What does this fold into?
Amino acid sequence: PDQTQMALYWWESSPLKWSRIARIVSANKGLNLWENARLFALLNMALADGYIAMAASKNHYNFWRPVTAIHSSGETSWTPLQPTPPDQDYPSGHSIEGGAGSEVLKQFFGTDQISFQDCSVTLPAGSTCADPTPVLRTYSSFSQAADENAYSRVLIGFHFRHATQEGNAYGHKIGARAATLLPPVK
It folds into this structure.
């Protein structure tokens, strides 16, 4: 049950999820308007760069998804938890976004070790962010959330583990570069 919850929890759009995480941490840290503007500019530049890198890489490697590989082995009754996206497996775009988002947050706040809780819009009705008692998942660091995000793509049945690990690492590099682009206003 926890693995299914994790898979569905991270199923939502990466830019929406990582922006919500940034809003939660920003509010907890009491950032002012200029600090928030810089944080969200850096975050969204990294996330946009992540999607560009994902498309270029997927088209270059053109690696099959687990559903195709499993069906080709004769296990035609196997299905992922949700319909598989209509593009290639490697690298995992969701994992790139998680690595990029978590790295920008780490660089911006000067530490990875910031605890936070978050909800999801893609869990079953009664447990989403909009419900009276949403399911909250707790993280002790941004990288812990990014690692869980990447693993969720294996659990949902969309990616092989290698695609998620490499995607997460690629995203961290993208996030580290993006975090250098807008120096703080003094």
Q: What stands out?
A: The longest helix spans residues 33-61. The CA atoms of residues 52 and 170 lie 12 Å apart.
